[in-house]
Amino acid sequence: MQRTLAVLAVAALAGGLATTPATQAAVARPSARTIDTYLAEAWESTGVPGFSAVVTHHDRVVHAAGYGHDAEGNPVTEHTPMRVASLSKSFTATAVLTLVDDGRVKLDEPVATYLPEFRMADDRAGRITVRQLLNQTSGLSDTGVDITSAEEATSLREYVAALSDGTLAADPGTRWEYCNVNYELAARVVEVAGRQPFGDYLREHVFTPLGMSRSAVDVADVVPAEGHISLFGLWWARQEPEQFLDNGGAGGVITTADDLGRWLVSQNGHGTSILAPGSLAESHRPVTDAAYAMGWGTQRIGDDDLLVHSGNLFTYTAVQAVDPETGRGFAVLVNGAGLYDDAYEVLAGLVELSRGGNPEIPGGDRQVVELVLGLLALAAVVLGVLGVLRARRWAAARAAGNRWWLGARLVGVSVPLVMFAAYPDLASVLMNGRTVTWEQLMYFALPLTVLLALSGAASAATLVARAAALRSVGSVR
């Protein structure tokens, strides 16, 4: 279940953005047809509803296309808008850095300088700088704030206000921890310092200059294709949780593969420049052991360190990467989300292909994982039925004196029920302390949720049947 519940963004740069001519000459350059063949086979193999992908090289788009279909049966193309979840953070960081280049924001100035309304029940919050927000070293954590209340906010101003009772998990600048609050605060800084709504600022200062005409953070401007979730290998369209339909900086961007091609070219230092060279380099410079930069972080794919960021918004998955050695860029957008990250596997193959390799066609792993979970769910139902049917036999054996052994078996039967009750907390542990709700677990984690629910129900039914059987045996005696 690689990259399952974690769905965390990690990624990107260890070095410059250009290579020497000799290095470039040594790198194989797959043709658009080769890339298209690989992607078409990958779509067939992964079984996702649809995805789009783009590959760039320095200042040009080598290949951009879509595969599969949307929820209405229309073909997915490179122009199909999709939510890209946490890929949004790189756009938010860029928006902040345009304000830095204009002299309206300073990275090492406290956030409260720009947001006087930013207050927390922790004096240390006043020391959080803009840089620490973008590097995710602010000390903010899901464990210290009421994430559920914050996500119910209808504006970034309300979101900031919802943090007032929160505390920090560490002193600012001392520890890296992935937390969406950092980028919602950064988006609010853009609004205040840029003197216009966050979405308008992104459109005017990032999307439009790059020619990203089908990108936005508001469904009033660009309507994304509906996403999907998977249950035991079967996909169906589903609206994402209402609280994630926002215009925020942590995961609000809607875009297309075609538009991301222009973005990746710019991130490689080519095409239209919306940042000063120093600011672009700063956005890619990793800090701390986590090697996270500003909406990017260092990640090894194959034998190389790349700029990478992935995203999961419950009904969509996406991943983008820039190869600093070859000047290539990659992005994959999937209109579905499951326990297995197919988008990442497809992108990893593209990276290998760009290096002259012959990648295996990804796919099958998600289906295998979900098939196993489905079989386990079926087994849980069978065991639950058997547990109910054999309850009287169990009670009779206990009455006959096998109390210790049968009592231990009773405890064992209780385990699935306890696990289901603790499921959100267990998922939170797997996600390094990030807040996980029951509603969220009914989306991309649905196969696991159904398995645990059926196991818990079987456990409860067996316990109730045994309790009733014990009373029955006792009354007979």
From TrEMBL:
The chain crosses the membrane at residues 371-391, 403-423, 443-469. Keywords: Membrane, Signal, Transmembrane, Transmembrane helix. InterPro entries: AmpC-like, Beta-lactam-related, Beta-lactam/transpept-like. Residues 1-25 form the signal peptide. Residues 36-339 form the Beta-lactamase-related domain. This is Penicillin-binding protein, beta-lactamase class C. It comes from Saccharomonospora xinjiangensis XJ-54.
